[in-house]
Amino acid sequence: MTQTTDTTADNRLPNNRQPSNQLTVNGHSVYAHTGGRPFDPARPVAVLLHGAGMDHTVWSLQTRYLAHHGRSVLAVDLPGHGRSGGEPLDSVAALADWVVALLDAAGVAKAALIGHSMGALVALDAAACHPDRVESVVLLGAAERMPVHPDLLAAAAAGDPSAIELVIGWGHGPRGHSGGSPTPGLALIPGGRRLMAAVKPGVLGVDLAACNAYGQGGASADLVTCPALFVLGALDRMAPVKAGRSLASRIKASQIVTIPATGHMVMTEAPDATLDALRSFFDLRRA
């Protein structure tokens, strides 16, 4: 593991220097944001997994808090996303195995996995297939099946900009569409467009196809034995709250937090409520 310096705008330290980790996983460079603190594998570890066509920056408002309240954090760019090398992996199962390889590279025996959308499916599959490596899971915007309309799959595969518009439009609830944001200076819809427009060509198509093909959500949930928290947006049109509750019912040690007036992008639309849910689940101090 190589300790590097991150000079991105998210969560800057006063001197514009903030710790990050550049790891090598399966022969490829992987970027992991550590929330402004050096990564220490001896502390309890949280790995944050983003959704389709995104990167670690969607967790900016949670990563720093976790890193300064008892957790070592790896908010990763998945293969082929953001600053990570390699090609995007074409299945949820392959991504779940990759998470275990990531833990090996970071020297971590066991971690809590926090995933959104595609990342939630990855966390779920990893907990089912590698129970000895997963302490707990937090699943945001999750459902047993996450089918993608054929027209959206085709647009994403072709690199048609309409795919981004569809994902961003359907992914946000009313707050995003009305211009309201709980974070000063952040406009949710334009910010989402800019993030997804920066993704490498073809990546969104691979990601959406992986989500569409994953049919093992229910079977995986039946195998999960670790504690699980579901954070669901009441107005989620991509993973409806009813579907999230149904999936949660298949995990014995599960909790559900439903956030009102919120769509699929739970952690950016309702960052404080998301943090409250994480704080309670992990029993973190408020100071």
Automatic annotation (TrEMBL):
Coiled coil: none annotated. Keywords: Hydrolase. Gene3D superfamilies: alpha/beta hydrolase (3.40.50.1820). Pfam families: Abhydrolase_6 (PF12697). Residues 1-36 are annotated as: Disordered. GO terms for molecular function: hydrolase activity. Signal peptide: none annotated. Residues 1-27 have a biased composition (Polar residues). PANTHER family: HYDROLASE ALPHA/BETA FOLD FAMILY (PTHR43194), PIMELOYL-[ACYL-CARRIER PROTEIN] METHYL ESTER ESTERASE (PTHR43194:SF5). This is Alpha/beta hydrolase. It comes from Azospirillum cavernae.
